[in-house]
Amino acid sequence: MRSVLTLFFCTIIFISNAQSGYQIRIKTENINADSLFFKAYNIKSKKFVNFLAVKFENDMTIKDKTYLDAGIYVVEADSIILSEFLISDTKNQKFTISILKDDIKIDGSKENSANRAYMKQLFEFNRQLMALEDEFRQMQQRGLPQYMIQPFVDTLIRKADNITAEKRAYQEKMINENKGLLLASIIQGSLEQPPPPQDYYRDRAIFYSYLSKNHFDNFPWEDERLINTPVLHNKFKTFAQHILQLEPEFSIPIVIKVLNESKKNRSMYYALFDYLEHEFGSWKSPYRDVSLYLAMLKDILHTPDLEEMRKMRYEYELNLISKNQVGEQAIDFNILLGNGDTTTMYNIEAEILMLYFQNPDCPICLEIREKMKNMEILNRAIALGKLKVVTIYFEENEHLWRNYLTTSAFTTWLHGWNYDFGISANSLYDIRAIPMIMVLDKNKKVIKKDLLSNEIENWLKRYF
Fold first, then answer.
1. CA 181 to each of CA 262, 350, 404, 457: distance values in angstroms, whole numbers, following the listed order
2. Would you state the pLDDT for residue 15?
């Protein structure tokens, strides 16, 4: 009986120890602070976010019965990062971080010790490369002729190539030695891509197509632990910057290809889609690209087992932005004009019709109206009878609109009110930010959708 009870209690103790969560001891030298902050990386906010704050002591142990999620964490005091540490899984969340005067040591975690060694060696490689750059600048400042500088430059290039090759070999070695750990995926995800062939630099589209197509070569999409690291955000950010340099005919197939590659892990796929949607699909983004966002929506709606909430939102988005595309016939709507006549948008005849969707009291609407009022090329096109500007108010406050007609409406423009509210009620136009400017030809086909105010004059120069 005693042996059975002993076995029982030993089992309880073992289970308790196995499920005891994280325990991190922090030892510091020569640091004075009121509080110590533990922060976890959050991809939505794109920064490290506090999850724990404690009163500072030079030797302290932080622990909890729960485990920390896999990812990168930092220890901070007085807005200074004292150390970072990695969490790969729940097998080892008990270690000691010693923040010494001249170094940082992490005992009890082979992965974090390896990460410290990796960061030191990476710093050394980068220091050597920066030293070569300094040598090059110093040689340039001497003002020597090119034929004297060139041999020296060739030597520096060879040295830089050798250091870069050593750096890459070291990174690949670290990946192999730490397979299965978050550290390996962080290094793999951070690898620099080989530079493009020299002749690619002559053509902008070819150059940025190369950078975009190869940006995620050998990227560990299957490791969703990267979501809780800056690596993923940095990778997405650079990719988006490359895509911005390309016309839709080049960018769309590349983005769809990369999205399909990321589907190796659903969480990673959603993370990439959400980031690109924020950059290219949001009305608040200066980089909004309707054609690219449209292609992204069509692609994700063909994804098997798409989350229902996402499916509903994307179907709504697709339906809305698919309307009134460039080259398509704009949707007609009813208008009450300032003189009391009722008509439709289609019945307003003009060689070019500029629709200015607005709220008269909107400060930005007013600011842009004033800018347009002083655009010489716009006024000339109106005076020649080549263009008509029609302001469209599509909300319910008739008094607001009539007050606008008598106080601030320009006499050279037409002013209309969508009195039956068909634009809003039937979602005829994708108006989520005002003012929204759309340009139509004489047959009411869309020439330009979402014309930005700073584009108006340059755009009109093509026609007048």
1. 20, 65, 64, 55
2. 40
Peptide bond connecting 435 to the previous residue in cis, omega within 30 degrees of 0: yes
Closest CA to 97 of 84, 79, 114: 84
In this structure, what are the phi and psi dihedrals at residue 343, rounded to the nearest 5 degrees? -155, -170
What is the distance of C-alpha 226 from the center of its chain?
16
pTM beyond 0.70: yes
Task: Confirm whether 285 is domain-assigned.
Answer: yes
Clarify whether residues 235 and 310 are in a common domain.
yes
| pLDDT tens track for 51-95 | 999 999 999 999 999 999 999 999 999 888 999 999 998 777 999
C-alpha 118/C-alpha 124 separation (Å) is 10
Query: Quick one: 346 and 233 in the same domain?
Result: no
Domain that includes residue 235, residue range? 220-321
| Same domain, residue pair 381 and 431 | yes
Q: Which of 80, 108, 136 is the last residue of a domain?
A: 108
Are 156 and 68 contained in the same domain?
Answer: no
Domain stops at, among 277, 295, 321 = 321
Check whether residue 177 and residue 252 sit in a common domain. no
> What sign does the dihedral 63-64-68-73 (CA atoms) show?
negative
CA distance 442 to 428: 20
Residues 6+ apart with CB under 8 A from 76: 36, 37, 38, 39, 48, 82
132 part of a folded domain: yes
- Separation in Å, CA 404 to CA 358, 359, 362, 398, 417: 11, 10, 11, 10, 11
Reported residue count of the chain is: 464
Are residue 456 and residue 346 in the same domain, yes or no? yes
361-367 contacts at long range (C-beta below 8 A, 24 or more positions apart): 361/400, 361/404, 362/434, 362/435, 364/434, 364/435, 365/434, 365/435, 366/408
Burial (Cβ within 10 Å: 0-12, 13-18, ≥19) of residue 255: buried
| Spatial separation of the C-alpha atoms in residues 256 and 254, rounded to whole Å | 6
Task: Give residue 35's pLDDT band: very low, low, confident or very high (50, 70, 90).
Answer: very high
- Token match 């080549």: residue? 386
